[in-house]
Amino acid sequence: MNDHHQKLYEYSKHIILSNQHVSGAYVASPNFPTYHYCWFRDGAYIAYAMNLAGEHDSARRFHAWSSQRIIENKDSIIRGIKRAKAGLHLDAKSILNTRYHLDGKPESDGSWPNFQLDGFGTWLWSLNEHKKILKEPLPNNWMEAAGLTADYLSILWQLPCYDCWEEFPNNIHPSSLAAIYGGLNAYNEIGGKITPNLLSTLKDRINEYAVLHGYFTKFLNDPSVDANLISLALPYAVFSVNDKAVQETVSQIEKTLGIFGGIHRYAKDTYYGGGEWPILTSWLGWYKVQLSRIPNVGNANLLRIQAEKHLDWCIDHSTIRSNEVWLPEQVSEHMNSPEYLTQWEKKWGHSANPLLWSHAMYIILYTNLLQV
Ligand code: BGC
After folding, report:
1. What is the pLDDT of residues 190-249, one digit of tens each?
2. CA 291–ligand 1 middle distance (angstroms)
3. If you take atom 12 of ligand 1, which residue's CA is the nearest one?
């Protein structure tokens, strides 16, 4: 790796730290009004990246902030569990919001697609990583929040919900099931008691998405993939990175979503035209580094070289603004559906830049490459 790689790593840390609110919340993007909130999903990855970068206090402040959000929404969790068990519809008072104001207040206008479960699984995973990296016990109130989150996920996982791209609410998504699996498994590692039965049921459900084509698909009965399927192995570890179906999935992702180097979310994505995402490009690189560490699965050197190319791609698609180097949410190149770009720009303005989650994934890939 070279100075350019390191420079973007340093800027990434700086951008994340300077956009962490005093409350501990990370703003998703400081320059894009729709993202002036903190998401559990983005925050959990950002906190993990900050731990890898040695910025433990930042991660600690985020986990304290998120634990508080869970505990103050205990009534909604209890109500949600009760209603789900009784087969009743989950109203706004029985679910956890997906995004929160930076001071912790739930977003109240009800217009956001709030019923998303993956972020809470991801948060449990990140909490366990925090414990493993710092080798320190988690505070009691974090454990209480983790327990409530695990209870919520253990019951609600069977319901259709929006996926990690906040779309397709009528489906059950393999990537969301994987985040729940990874979260519940992590909860067991920090002392929880989720039955092995539930974990194996979740795994069986995820496996159904690989039956037809030998690789995991975004939907049942449809051969297309979504780049979020990398998460089934990394980080949620439902399957190992060298699992055959996982490797096939990654190869489909590269073939169909990564023709020009940057990775798309999925082929029919039209959000801001459906461009290439630094989050996913780094994610694929992270996967390759992890795969390169497994003996006899391929050419380790080649995998590392490829992973470094993913870092390069991020650098080539960063922008210099206000004396900083920024990574956007997506790059408007090789768009799936360019005709959609202006309609989104009219609705919400230019797409998010910088996006803290993009910087976090860059840090994750960079620090992984350093460790090899
Ligand atoms: C993405 C989500 C993300 C949110 C905030 C949405 O457009 O689809 O995955 O959590 O932005 O970054």
Report:
1. 999 988 999 999 999 999 999 899 999 999 999 999 999 999 999 999 999 999 999 999
2. 27
3. 28
Q: How many CB atoms lie within 10 A of CB 79?
A: 17
Which residue among 27, 117, 165 is best mutated to probe the pocket of ligand 1, counting the most ligand atoms within 8 A of its Cβ?
165
Cβ atoms within 10 Å, residue 154: 19
C-alpha 114/C-alpha 110 separation (Å) is 8
Q: How far is the C-alpha of 248 from the C-alpha of 239, rounded, in Å?
A: 13
CA distances from 129 to 54, 67, 122, 195 (A): 13, 15, 11, 21
pTM of the model as a whole: 0.98
CA distance 318 to 133: 29
Q: Say how many domains are in the chain.
A: 1
Q: What is the CATH number of the domain that holds 336?
A: 1.50.10.10
> What is the amino acid identity at position 259?
I
Parent domain of 300: 3-370
